[in-house]
């Protein structure tokens, strides 16, 4: 792919810089992973068979109704988690920041757990309900965090307050989850713990289609913030003098992140380490500029989640490992290794 | 040109209302004891903390009326050192917030003796080197984005630009600031702790104490031993007879 582009550049004299090469490379890798993932699973389905119409009806049914929405959801959730991780790290100017830090994920998680334990019936609306609960949870946390931040005004104290508010919300949500687990029935408890480990099995067209649209909007909002996130790295007062409206940037990034992450949590539970790990690794490779880091993180997150999910559903097929467990098992040790190896921030 | 008309801040930390004009081509030093409100005043001059009384006008237009992006073409701020969280390369950091020509970046790196560090990561630099990088970035913002209709080089606000520099670098920086002020008709405001640097290099001095500007004018007038000794609660002796006619103050043993 890169070779083709390079050849094209010499012929057409187009300025194709490093950023374009990186993004094209990551996109190509993602497409390859999608092709591999589409073909593998408990039921082996050849993409060529599908295209040529020779596959049996069951395979076609499985592919269109189960596997394709799952692939797309993997791409969207991976991109959203890693992209919002990169944006949050930029916003807090801290490589260890993450949407879970603000309490968005746990707030969404608490609302979903409340839904599962207290309101869920076995009716057809249950998935939408879970979906809406996560959405609402993230939105509530977002509004609380915002109310606190607004009272603080600008300045560096505001960032610290945001982090502390996130800590409090995480603790509160953890306690709430404990209470819910205590009163839940065995069946609900099993559902809660499976969902809590993070899995893409809930991918169905009726929820995935809406999620894709909303996540695309959130990703677009983050992409628009790239240049401003770069400026913010100068510190708030210096960045203001350099032309940054920090309040607007914060608003946009926090809203986009909470909507996107709330959605992801509602659909898939908590899939750990993508938001932390992917931007961190890519920053080591590409440098801290957000105009490249944000889209690269989105592609990288999508790639990683698609690969991890394919492994999760094939390694022990027909049984399935929750993909959140897999990403945490792979990502956690690597992240600790990075922390130990590097003696300076990022 | 920045003009102040009874501009002040009422919320703590407060600044008592003051008048003044900061003209293109001059180097103004703001001095005063710890907690006098120097950084707060600088923050007000930059518009980050908008004046709560009176008003500030830049080039005749009140500061709050400037679109934030256009204002960035006319004034830059270098706040006290904040560690950049991420691993920027020196020349990348210089270009943040503007889209400078390569030649401008090279010239500014050369001005502040940073050329050999251009490709280094800023996190690997010493405190003094990083401080010079941030100052170069501020100048880069003004010089690369200066609007074509502007007759002068804008307003550069520096908060303790020499705090991490050795004396040789202090001298080179202050001389360079004077050179920028003259060449580009830039108005430069420095918060300084070192009164002798203010005395040696500044055109004018504002002396701040407990949020009030208690004196302003030429360095030799404002920085007289009696006033300074009282305000800083320090025992001083005046060193006169230096070749350039500037008063220098030393601590009494």
From TrEMBL, chain B:
<protein>
    <submittedName>
        <fullName>ATP-binding cassette domain-containing protein</fullName>
    </submittedName>
</protein>
<keyword id="KW-1278">Translocase</keyword>
<feature type="domain" description="ABC transporter">
    <location>
        <begin position="2"/>
        <end position="235"/>
    </location>
</feature>
<dbReference type="InterPro" id="IPR003593">
    <property type="entry name" value="AAA+_ATPase"/>
</dbReference>
<dbReference type="InterPro" id="IPR017871">
    <property type="entry name" value="ABC_transporter-like_CS"/>
</dbReference>
<dbReference type="InterPro" id="IPR003439">
    <property type="entry name" value="ABC_transporter-like_ATP-bd"/>
</dbReference>
<keyword id="KW-0813">Transport</keyword>
<dbReference type="GO" id="GO:0016887">
    <property type="term" value="F:ATP hydrolysis activity"/>
</dbReference>
<dbReference type="Pfam" id="PF00005">
    <property type="entry name" value="ABC_tran"/>
</dbReference>
<dbReference type="InterPro" id="IPR027417">
    <property type="entry name" value="P-loop_NTPase"/>
</dbReference>
<keyword id="KW-0067">ATP-binding</keyword>
<comment type="function">
    <text>Part of the ABC transporter complex HmuTUV involved in hemin import. Responsible for energy coupling to the transport system.</text>
</comment>
<dbReference type="GO" id="GO:0005524">
    <property type="term" value="F:ATP binding"/>
</dbReference>
<keyword id="KW-0547">Nucleotide-binding</keyword>
